[in-house]
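Reply to dn_fold:

You asked what the input looked like. This is it:
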Amino acid sequence: MAMFDDPWIASVGPLTFIAINALDIRYRFMPAMSEGADGRSWGTVWFPVSLLVLVNLCWRGVMPVWVGGIGVLVLGWGDGLAALVGEASPARGVGIWGGRKTPAGTAAMFAASFAVALVFTLLFNPRFAALFPAVGVAMAVAGVATVVEVLTPLGIDNMTVPLVTSIFYAAVLL
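and this is what came back:
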């Protein structure tokens, strides 16, 4: 988002991946992306949809670009690590709306979200430039992101986590 001068150009990447990923769900021409998918999850499409929305919210002045970056990286790091750690966890986990959530995966989501929010807050938000208040902000953001990730089914978290996290930060913490 921060690397482009024009919102239309910045939208080309997400639009392209919405189309490619939707076609892959239908035709399965990228087996690595489809591995383990049950056909119900459109998560690979929802993420570029959320990126497209965030690009345009940032470019339209609704939130700073770095706040949109928090949402993108919370999903990339938090949800990605939650999946890896959750799969490696010996715990069976809890079934929530068709997904399986383990305590270890949920903790990984919280920790990664906390780290992203803390770093971005310390670097970009002068209102919370000291460590102690920034830790509180990061805990709030990580809590919201983790709850949204746990409660959103079928890959839709790939859209809800970045959007809700960024909108929460922009509305409550700026």
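The first strand starts at residue 94 and ends at 96.
Hope that clears it up.
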